[in-house]
Specification:
Layout (H helix, E strand, L loop, with lengths): L1 E5 L9 H15 L3 E6 L10 E3 L4 E5 L2 E5 L3 H14 L3 E5 L6 H8 L4 E5 L6 H5 L1 H8 L4 E4 L2 H11 L4 E2 L20 E5 L8 H7 L8 E5 L5 H8 L5 E5 L3 H10 L2 E4 L9 H8 L4 E4 L2 H6 L7 E3 L4 H13 L1 H16 L3 H16 L17
Parallel strand pairs: 1-2, 1-6, 2-3, 6-7, 7-8, 8-9, 10-11, 10-13, 11-12, 13-14, 14-15
Antiparallel strand pairs: 4-5
Length: 371
Amino acid sequence: MRVGLVCPYSLTIPGGVQGQVMGLARSLRRMGVEARVLAPCDGPPPDESVTPLGNSLPTASNGSIAPLAPDPPAQLRTIRVLRDEQFDVLHLHEPLAPGPTNTAAVMKSAPLLGTFHRAGHSTAYQYLRPLVQWVANRLDHRCAVSDDARRLAEAQLGGRYEVMFNGVELDAPASEPVPTTGPTIFFVGRHEPRKGLAVLIDALSHLPDEVRLWVGGDGPETEALRARAGNDPRVEWLGRISDTEKQARLRGADVFCAPSLYGESFGVVLLEAMAARTPIVASDLDAYAIVARPGRDALLSEPGDPAALAAALKRVLYDHDTAGALVASGLERAQQFSMDTLAQRYVEIYADLAAGRPVRIPAPPAPEGTR
């Protein structure tokens, strides 16, 4: 079976959707599926299974700046690739995003599976509803990565959605942990308001002087956040980092912190931290509680409250029993979200679509700890 995985976001810019697409493609190939990834790339493609569709353009999306490729040259490349490759099934991630996924949906050169990642709010869904509903109706089966993503899509687009929680690659090669010089917190993400990095910086004032903070990523708020931190020597600004370095930092840090304020559809980075055996402190958001059971797999604190965040961080950093229990439970939890398990379900869907029969939807119990 030949499957085309179409991603609207540049693969050379780190992101949750990009990571899911590449990880899924690797699992599918191990299962014997001929999986090819079609996506924008702002540099050399990450591996030989990727067909680059051109450079991306920074585009405002869902409170963030997304590396999309809505320009005509990228769409012409997409059309040419779809014509030449003759896929049995096309798997579109964020199928309504401007660029290759939208173009692939309009063309419909093969049966279409759409996976919806967006949660919270979508201006495009709201103001372009007739157009996006028309495109969505071209999909043969719809999935959503969380209940939040499903609710948004159902409310704005109609239709039915199979919830397929994101996966984590448990058998990925382990990176050597980066050494630390004291109790160390790791943050990685785009520097924008919804990620809550400002709250974490403010929380440092409530923590002992020996605590260190690694800050990965960049974005429109980087300079303002640097100014907020002042010349605090405890903060190390790493800039944009590779997946390999991210894994090495996760393994080296004493705690991973995700202080997001809103707009998260699924906490896949929490799964990565669990798989790396790193305890987690995160905001008490529904999208995070789906993944990390409060008090068992992570400590969750009130979003936007620096003192509450600092208290949770201090507990993990200095209470080794708590940290150990979170690691043990988190590792067990990560097993439930294996990328290979996710890929197996997608293969079942692909087979139904390729054969032209209705997709058979199983009815398993929801993962433990959802709310």
